[in-house]
Amino acid sequence: MTVEADQPRKFGSVLGLTPANPAAPADADARRAPRQVNDYIATAVVVAAIVVAMQIASYFVPAYIIPAPLVVLKAFVASLAEDYVQILITLARLLATLTISIVVGTAIGIITGTVAWIRPYLRALVVIDTGIPALSWMLVAVFWFKNPEARLFFIMVVIIVPIYALNVHDGIRAMPKDWLEMCESFRPTRWQVLRYLIVPHIVPYVLMTTKSTVGYATRMLIFAELIGSSLGIGARMGLAQATFHMEDVLAWTMLLVIMNLLAQGGVGLAERYLLHWRDEASVR
Description:
By secondary structure, the chain is mostly helical. About 80% of the residues lie in helices and about 0% in strands. It folds into two domains: about 1-60, no CATH class; about 65-275, MetI-like (MetI-like fold, Orthogonal Bundle).
């Protein structure tokens, strides 16, 4: 009996999926910590390499093509000091559209995954939406809406909502059937099934989608601001391009990269808080 009981544990420890002894979780954390430090070091090395390459290139090409890193840094500081309102406008737009898209997309995904009779129609609508290019939606928004804020809101929502809807729907369809049967054995109401089974199950899918979408949403918002608004980072980048201020374009680009890193870090913190109960598998 002892040998048979130990076989799954030994087999799992070989694959790195289960701890071979009670101290294994701590060992796994210790193994993950150096990788995180190495990631930071690798990022710093890549940034330093880019800076060196820009500095070398600035000696051979005009400043309106590749300016020196110090010039870009001065433009970056000036943008933070003088155009902080534009930054706040873009951040507010991004936060509002992402929040609405998460709520609406998750709701559509839950309905698609739980209501059989409406599933084919909603899924077809979402798939058709994903096949429409973002540029088409931007041009349509320019014709349909006079208010720039309405244009941007419409563009962002119709682009991002389908991503959440499809991922949440796939997450519900991937739910083990045994879980649902076990839950139904307690005679729950539909609301209880949604609250205690479906919503906790789709939280990782929503967080994963947010991780992969926040950078894409930022790029789409900047592009939409460039086309359909006179306020925001995208509009300022368009002005810098029109006046041949390459250092301002790179300064705004650097700010967007920093914003994306901070957003990814925020989603990571939310993931650790909301999914602290979940053990992380470590494959060696």
